[in-house]
């Protein structure tokens, strides 16, 4: 069974003033209405699943991106010097956080990690502003399953001389990712668990 909202509330989610509780509830609703689907799917990890979360339906949505920027910025440690993520899923997320950070007078640059080194020019894996050696970078992700995708970004950043101690995801599917990061010595936080999304989704289809 799938649920697709034809219309959905679009409150005035401000870059600086709307309270985070309202922003968080709005983002959860968008994820349920636009990103969450039930059926028979094969994930990027190769696992089969009875549901799928297409995060880009929300991370590339104008109000969704603004909500994501507000929420994730609030979760970053104060000493964060940049946010980064593995292309393609994290690209709009790190961009949203960086733009919102400028509005909140806490400018934080964004870095994008290529899956393969660029085939020309500097042949770099990392795109974005150059940071000082040891700069503290937080890796962002849309959906975490096993944790392997974001770990590729962590490894590339560390190879470049940056300090990475934390991963933050919009959604934790609760299929081993958190435990994987813990074993790797990384802190992990998620805005929502799959349980949060499924409970809200049930409210939509039963209303």
From TrEMBL:
One of its GO terms (molecular function) is orotate phosphoribosyltransferase activity. Its cofactor is Mg(2+). InterPro entries: OPRT (IPR023031), Or_phspho_trans_dom (IPR004467), PRTase-like (IPR029057), PRTase_dom (IPR000836). Its EC number is 2.4.2.10. 5-phospho-alpha-D-ribose 1-diphosphate binds at residues 114-115, 118, 120, 141-149. Keywords: Glycosyltransferase, Magnesium, Pyrimidine biosynthesis, Transferase. It catalyses: orotidine 5'-phosphate + diphosphate = orotate + 5-phospho-alpha-D-ribose 1-diphosphate. One of its GO terms (biological process) is 'de novo' UMP biosynthetic process. CDD domains: PRTases_typeI (cd06223). Residues 115-177 form the Phosphoribosyltransferase domain. Pathway: Pyrimidine metabolism; UMP biosynthesis via de novo pathway; UMP from orotate: step 1/2. Orotate binds at residues 145, 173. It is an enzyme of class 2 (transferase). Belongs to the purine/pyrimidine phosphoribosyltransferase family. PyrE subfamily. Homodimer. Catalyzes the transfer of a ribosyl phosphate group from 5-phosphoribose 1-diphosphate to orotate, leading to the formation of orotidine monophosphate (OMP). NCBIfam families: pyrE (TIGR00336). This is Orotate phosphoribosyltransferase. It comes from Brasilonema sennae CENA114.
């Amino acid at each position: 069974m799938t649920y697709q909202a034809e219309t959905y509330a679009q409150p005035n989610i401000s870059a600086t003033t709307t309270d985070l509780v309202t922003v968080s509830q709005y983002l959860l609703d968008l994820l349920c209405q636009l990103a969450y689907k039930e059926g028979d799917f094969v994930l990027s990890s190769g696992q089969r699943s009875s549901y799928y979360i297409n995060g880009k339906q929300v991370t590339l949505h104008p109000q969704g991106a603004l909500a994501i920027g507000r929420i994730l910025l609030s979760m970053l440690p104060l000493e964060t010097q940049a946010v980064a993520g593995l292309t393609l899923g994290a690209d709009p997320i790190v961009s949203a956080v960086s733009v919102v950070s400028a509005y909140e007078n806490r400018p934080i640059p964004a870095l994008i990690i290529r899956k393969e080194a660029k085939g020309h020019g500097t042949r770099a894996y990392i795109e974005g502003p150059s940071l000082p050696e040891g700069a503290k970078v937080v890796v962002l992700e849309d959906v975490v399953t096993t944790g392997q995708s974001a770990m590729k970004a962590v490894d590339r950043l560390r190879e470049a001389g940056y300090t990475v101690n934390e991963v933050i995801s919009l959604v934790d599917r609760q299929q081993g990712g958190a435990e994987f990061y813990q074993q790797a010595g990384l802190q992990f936080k998620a805005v929502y668990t799959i349980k949060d999304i499924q409970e809200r989704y049930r409210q939509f289809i039963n209303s």
